[in-house]
Amino acid sequence: MLLSQNPKKLWSLLWMIFCSTVLINCIILYQFDKKNQRDRFTGCLNKIEQKHVFVIDPSSIHSTQTQSEILSRITQQARNIKREDLALVYVMNGQSMSQLQPVFKACHTDANFEKLFLKSIQHAVYAQPQHSTAIPLAEALLDIELSQHQFQPKQTRLFIFSNFLQNSQNLSFIQSTDLKTAINQFKLSRLGGVQRPTFVNTTAYLHIIPHEQLTENLLNIRDGFWIWFFGDMRGDRSTYGLERHDLPGS
Question: What is the number of other CB atoms lying within 10 angstroms of the CB of residue 39?
Fold first, then answer.
């Protein structure tokens, strides 16, 4: 009754109702469109802000201390995986040169994400090493970088847990005489293809697991090779880099 006697208030109320209805419909349409853009396997949106890649080499893990430390470090990093970020977990073994697939690949979309992610990490850390002594780490990292361009985010964080003693049919640090020979041998094995990755807006964190019986020459080859391997980093200077994080005992 009062509104009918005051046309201005009536029109204001109707206008507010109309605007609220439009806003609600826009939100519903946005959520529907957002949901439809998700990858049906990973739950990821078409555009990813940040990607977190974890590469674990079980053959390098020889003590419960190392296992606990790796789990602690990755659990801490899991808290930095924000909603809609992509996480991938790779486990190294002798077949990684030809059968490399992530054991976990999903975007953070709900409250169950962290539980499922850490469960896959535990399986990876406590995985029984295969009898093969091959560690084709360089080849695996190349394949990971080349295969993830369809999920090219604004920033990538790469975490590697290994003793970094490359050992494959293409290159074995233990059998190499010096750093220059090791790099040239790896380049020759990649003729006609990508010889080392180009990391765009990527920060690589090298978590080096202790290894016994390291000679000075082997140490120089190991450290020098990985500095070369990660030497092509591009993008916004604040979003890429190379960090070394030794595990206890190294």
Answer: 16
How far, in Å, CA of 12 to CA of 40, rounded? 45
Helices marked H in 112-198 = 113-125, 137-147, 179-189
pLDDT at position 32 is: 46
Query: What letter represents residue 238's amino acid?
Result: S
pTM metric for this prediction: 0.83
Strands (E), the chain: 50-56, 86-91, 104-107, 155-162, 199-200, 202-208, 233-234, 241-244
**pLDDT per residue as tens digits for the range 50-70:** 999 999 999 888 889 999 999
Cβ count within 10 A of residue 152: 12
Q: Return all residues near 27 (Cβ < 8 A) that are at least 6 apart.
A: none
